[in-house]
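Data deposition worksheet. Section B asks for the primary sequence of the deposited chain exactly as it was used as input, without tags or linkers unless they were present during the calculation. Section C holds the resulting structure in token form. Section D is free text for depositor observations; keep each observation to a single sentence. Incomplete worksheets are returned to the depositor.
Section A, Depositor: J.P.
Section B:
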Amino acid sequence: MSKSKKKLKEKKKIKSHSVKEEKALVLVEKEKLKLAKIFRKEIIQEVVKKVSLAIIGTMSIACVSMIVIAITSIFYISHLKNGLIQKGVHINGISVATLTSEDAFQNVNSLLNDKIPECIVLQYKDTTYPLNLKDLGIQFDVETAVKEAYSIGRTKNVVRDLKEYMKVMNEAIDIDSELQYNEPVLDEYLMKIAEQLPDKVQEYSYHIENDKLLIDKGKSGVTLNHEALKHDILSNLRARKYDEIIPISTNETLPKPIDLQTIHEAVYAKPQDAYFTENPMTIYAEKIGIDFDVANAEQIIHNSPDSEQYTIDLILSNPNILVKDLNVYPDVLSTFSTNYVNNANRTTNLILASNKINGTVLMPGETFSFNQVVGERTIAGGYKNAAIFVNGEVEDGLAGGICQISSTLYDAVIGANLKITERHNHSKLTSYLPGGKDATVVWGRYDFQFVNNREYPVKIEMTVQNGVANATILGIKSAEEYEINIESQRIGVAGAYTVYNAYKVYRQNGVEVKREFLSRDLYK
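Section C:
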């Protein structure tokens, strides 16, 4: 080869080398500009200076890429050592770049959790419903979000970490801290709202009155769209739109068709005799059998499709053994007697009222009403005219004298330590009891009522014979019983009235244990 050809070849080689070198330098400058957006320029310049010798003489794009990776790796190593969250990282839109985990938590927590209000407002038409956020336990999980932010580029998988690190340098990342709340409490609150909607759908319903089953058809209305409203609430909370009123989502709804089979299953009951078990003593009341003809009920509804209520005849069957038939009243809880004058009409009235009461059984919690048990006093019922008090004066009146039965029973009830719920004294003192120990009754005006507040049923036995009206309360004594009676005292005169105070006195073995004020009664 001639010398001239050899020189030309070397010249072309040098020129080619220079072009490749220039391209490499251009690429490096581009990477420098990218990195300059993230890191301080003086650091970049220092790093570039350190690797500039390696660039000289490089002839390939691959070598340039290696240099860029080397530069990035240096900054990545610096990132691992500085203990700060990488640039470009946000939590719920809040920048936490170049912060320590502690500072990031304080900043984000103050902007998220410390800003949560006491309540937000839901609205349906003109009605608003406040939702207490404290009851829901609303809280952003800032701690977990900060840990995730700090872990970027720090998972100890070098390849993956470096890749993620380089990606975040160019693309900002936003971490959502999880919204924590008490879901059962929210669901319960929404169910309460569903019940309170002013125009909610009215489903069919039914109830029993005497021997009739009454079925209400129901009315169309709205139902709350539970899941949609729940989604709207949580979306607003996550977006921190606390001031926005959230409309309550509803659906137009028809009532469910009347399901007679379901009603029959709920209503149907076989008659059940009363019974008791011992050790411990437990008494089970009788139950009346209830049934109805489903086919007949279907026909009634079919024939009147526009009716709002349907009346179905019930088929009732009585049990054979009632509670009052059980011999489970071994103890006399109390007994009380008054004397009466053997006036034919008056005695007839006493016997009629006494017979109505005799044998009455009260289950625990059940209320006794004299007027309800004895009923209206009428001539057809056999009651006679006898002396009664009218406006403080003695006159003949229908059923005169039966107040002696209510008064005798009153003292026995106090003796059994049952709870009095209604009692009235006479307008004048009676001949059979001192003031404070009587109980008058007037149909439609005054009643005598008490509740069986004992653990077991009680039975009332009442007799009128041989000039004595007697009331006895039978039952089962408790571990702690008292001898109880009413003691009354005339305390003075107030205008045209004599005033008596009555006390409920408790004794054990004849010794007074305590006394309670019962009443202050005025008599003309």
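Section D:
The mean pLDDT is 86.
The chain has 14 helices and 29 strands.
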